[in-house]
Specification:
This protein is an alpha/beta fold and 353 residues long. It is built from 13 helices and twelve strands. It has a domain of 231 residues: NAD(P)-binding Rossmann-like Domain (Rossmann fold), CATH 3.40.50.720. Helix content is 44%, strand content 16%. The strands form three sheets. Strands 3-2-1-4-5-6-10 form a seven-stranded parallel beta sheet, sandwiched between helices. A three-stranded mixed beta sheet has the order 7-9-11. α1 packs across α8, α4 runs parallel beside α6 and α9 crosses α11. The chain is globular and about 70 Å long. The two termini are 16 Å apart. The structure holds nicotinamide-adenine-dinucleotide and thymidine-5'-diphospho-beta-D-xylose. The site of nicotinamide-adenine-dinucleotide has 30 residues, from α1, α4, β5 and β7. The site of thymidine-5'-diphospho-beta-D-xylose (TDX) has 16 residues, from α7 and β8. It catalyses: dTDP-alpha-D-glucose = dTDP-4-dehydro-6-deoxy-alpha-D-glucose + H2O. One of its GO terms (biological process) is nucleotide-sugar metabolic process. Keywords: Lyase, NAD.
Length: 353
C-alpha cells in the first residue's frame, strides 16, 4: 500500500485515479478535506477496497502514527498543501500551518515508522514530496530555465512555505537518512481543478458570461503541464528516483497568461459559440497580484535523461482535452461553484469509502 496525502485535491485525486487504473496496489488517502478537497471527484472509487480514505489533518501526529501502524505503507506521496497564491496573500497562516508544520509532522511520523521497519523494508521505503517551481522565484525574459541547482528565492507566502517544506525534506535525508525524493513541478491544468486557478476560472467565467480577469498586463509567463503528465512523472520518480535527489517536472510550454486566455476563448468559440462576438470580448485587465512573479520556466531534462520520462500531451492537446472535460462535467463545476460539494462531502464521508 502507498500513503497519499491530499488525495481529494486536484493533482492528488488525479494521481489516485490514475494509480488505481494502472495498479492493484492499494492507496491510503489521507486528506483533511479543506475547501479544496472534494470527494465527489473520487466517487467512482466508492466500494473499491483498494482505496481507503481517512479524513485526517497532516498536523495531527497521533492520527498519523496510528495510520502508519495500521496500514504499513511502503511509500508516502505527499500532495497535501494549501496551494493557491492569492489565498496565501490574504491569509498566510494556514499556509505556514499545513505546508511547514504539517510537512514536519508528516516527516516525523514517517521517520518513526521507517525506523521501526526491518532492514529490507527500510531500504525500499520512499517519501516523495510534491513541490513547485515557484520556490525558485521569478525569471527575467532571457534568463535560463530553472534547473535542480537554481538557488531558492521564493516571493509569495505560498512559495515561501513550500520552500520551507522542501528544506525540511532535504534535511531529513541528510540528517536521518530518510529516503526522500522531491519533485518541483510547473503549473498544472486539467480535470477537477478548483475554479480559483487561472484555467478553470476562465472557463467557468466565460460560460457564465462573466468578465475574464487578467492580472496586470497579462504578460506574466508560466510553464504549463497537463495533470496526468505530472502524475506519470511522479510515478517514475517514485519507482526509480534516487533518494536524496530533486527532480524538476515541466511541459516545455512557456506561455504568457494572455495567450492562455486567448487559447481558451478560441476553443470555446468553436465548442460553444456565442450568438454574436467572441469570448475574448469578456477579457478584462484588472489590478495586478501583489509581488506577482514575472516568469517561471522549467528545465525538465534531468528527469527525461535519467528516468526517460516525457509528457504525453502538448499544450494544444492538453488544452483541447481540458475544455472538453469542463464542458462535459458542468455538474461537477456547478456543485463546486455553488458550494453544494461541501454538503456532499459531509454526508458521504465515511472512514472507508
Ligand atoms: P489542491 O489545493 O487542489 O489540493 C490540496 C489538497 O490537500 C486538498 O484535498 C486539501 O483538502 C488537502 N489538505 C490541505 N491541507 C491539509 C491538511 N492540513 N491535512 C490534510 N490534507 C490537507 O492542490 P493541488 O493543486 O492539487 O496541489 C497539490 C500539491 O502539488 C501541492 O503540494 C502543491 O504545492 C503542488 N503543486 C501544485 C501545482 C499546481 O499547478 N496546482 C504545481 C506544482 C506543485
Ligand atoms: O484570475 C486570475 N487572473 C490571472 O491573471 C488568476 C486566478 C490568475 N491569474 C494569473 C496569475 C498567474 O500569473 O495567472 C497565472 C496563474 O495563476 P494561478 O492559476 O493562480 O497559478 P500560480 O499562481 O501560477 O500557481 C499555480 O502554479 C504553481 C498553483 O496554484 C500552485 O499551487 C503551483 O505551485
Amino acid at each position: 500500500m502507498i500513503l497519499v496525502t491530499g488525495g481529494a485535491g486536484f493533482i492528488g485525486a488525479n494521481f489516485v485515479l490514475d494509480w488505481l487504473r494502472g495498479a492493484q496496489e492499494a492507496v491510503l488517502n489521507v486528506d483533511k478535506l479543506t475547501y479544496a478537497g472534494n470527494l465527489r471527484t473520487l466517487e467512482s472509487l466508492q466500494g473499491d477496497s483498494r482505496h481507503v480514505f481517512a479524513r485526517v489533518d497532516i498536523c495531527d501526529a497521533a492520527a498519523l502514527d496510528a495510520l502508519f501502524a495500521t496500514h504499513r505503507p511502503r511509500a508516502v506521496v505527499h500532495f497535501a498543501a494549501e496551494s493557491h497564491v492569492d489565498r496565501s496573500i490574504h491569509g498566510p497562516a494556514d499556509f505556514v500551518q499545513t505546508n511547514v508544520v504539517g510537512t514536519f509532522a508528516l516527516l516525523e511520523a514517517a521517520r518513526r515508522y521507517w525506523a521501526s521497519l526491518e532492514r529490507g523494508e527500510r531500504e525500499a521505503f520512499r517519501f516523495l514530496h510534491v513541490s513547485t517551481d515557484e520556490v525558485f522565484g521569478s525569471l527575467g525574459p532571457t534568463d535560463p530555465q530553472f534547473s535542480e541547482t537554481t538557488p531558492y528565492a521564493p516571493n509569495s507566502p505560498y512559495s515561501a512555505t513550500k520552500a520551507g517544506s522542501d528544506h525540511l525534506v532535504r534535511a531529513y535525508f541528510h540528517t536521518y537518512g530518510l529516503p526522500t525524493l522531491t519533485t518541483n513541478c510547473s503549473n498544472n491544468y486539467g480535470p477537477y481543478q478548483f475554479p480559483e486557478k487561472l484555467i478553470p476560472l476562465m472557463i467557468a467565467n466565460a460560460l457564465a458570461g462573466k468578465a475574464l480577469p487578467v492580472y496586470g498586463d497579462g504578460r506574466n509567463v508560466r510553464d504549463w503541464l497537463y495533470v496526468t503528465d505530472h502524475c506519470s512523472a511522479i510515478r517514475e520518480v517514485l519507482a526509480r528516483g534516487e533518494p536524496g535527489q530533486t527532480y524538476n517536472i515541466g511541459g516545455w510550454n512557456e506561455k504568457a497568461n494572455i495567450e492562455v486566455v486567448h487559447t481558451l476563448c478560441d476553443l470555446l468559440d468553436v465548442a460553444r459559440p456565442l450568438a454574436q462576438g467572441s469570448y475574448r470580448d469578456q477579457i478584462a485587465f484588472v489590478k495586478d497580484r501583489p509581488g506577482h512573479d514575472r516568469r517561471y520556466a522549467i528545465d525538465a531534462s534531468k528527469l527525461e535523461r535519467e528516468l526517460g520520462w516525457k509528457p504525453a500531451e502538448t499544450f494544444e492537446t492538453g488544452m483541447a482535452k481540458t475544455v472538453r472535460w469542463y464542458l462535459e462535467h458542468q455538474a461537477w463545476v456547478n456543485e463546486v461553484a455553488s458550494g453544494e460539494y461541501r454538503k456532499w462531502v459531509e454526508t458521504n464521508y465515511t472512514k472507508r469509502m
